[in-house]
Amino acid sequence: STKLDDIAMVRRSTDFRPVDYAARHLSLAAALGFDATHIVSTIGHVPLCLHGERHAQARKRIARLINEGAEDAMAVVETEVPKMLAQLHTPGHHNPMTEFVFPCVDRLISANTGLNICLPSDTLVSRLFSQTLGVAKRRRMNAELLALRDTIAAQRPELDHSDISDRIALFILGVDALRGTVARSMKQLYEDGLHQMTADMASAYPATAVPYVDSEATAACPIGGINYPEGTNFRARLDQFETCENQAHQKRFFGFGAHSCLGRKLALALWRTVVDSMRDHPANITVSDFRLRKDDVFAIPEVFEIEVVHD
To answer: In angstroms, rounded to a whole number, what is the distance separating the alpha carbons of residues 71 and 54?
Structure first.
């Protein structure tokens, strides 16, 4: 649905649960003959994939983990991000993804999780929700999740299996979502013109990299005057909130209640720092190429190129 009130109702309602991603992976694995062991194991720690008490407990653990690493993550935002942006905006041709977005997100999530990990630009770790990946990529995803687990265990041998899984969940929830949000928001700022930026832009909301969320009705329910039976899949278009003039509506793409984004505070702090840094050092920047990758979950650039000219 694209109706804002309907989307809000579904995201708040306890009569909807996430689609069963684990069952989908297991079904495909059985039919197509690949190992989904580490995919399914990881899903059990990702709040967006869980319902009821398991969902509540997973959110508590992830919230606690984010809070424990918040000071280190904020230090990255405040001290490293302005320097990285200043380097990106030197005269010439640049690739914001490789020069800023990827390293920025890696540093932020690594600091938040107490690790030192740089995921490749084409990582499949955070595409766990995708339904369009072929067998080869699903095998690779499974292998990447195992490799990530081994890397975390090597860096933090004191962590148990559950602690490692929670950190993997943060990479899944944060990497592509944050990459896409930062990149799409920067593109908009470039196109609007950095010289036109005002102080209040830092308090506005960035673009979202999660255009929609799917849910399944656990009971018959009325939506928009239509009664839908139990088992109906409902796609909530979160990107509809981007264009709302009312900021109370705009912030809804961060989720609602029990499904609100746990990383919202950190994401907004990063956004405000990006805006402030761009406003303090304006340049004439032209977006020479920008294309989103083919992805059924995230809105994230596959190509992003700019040309920077100083007056």
So the answer is: 28
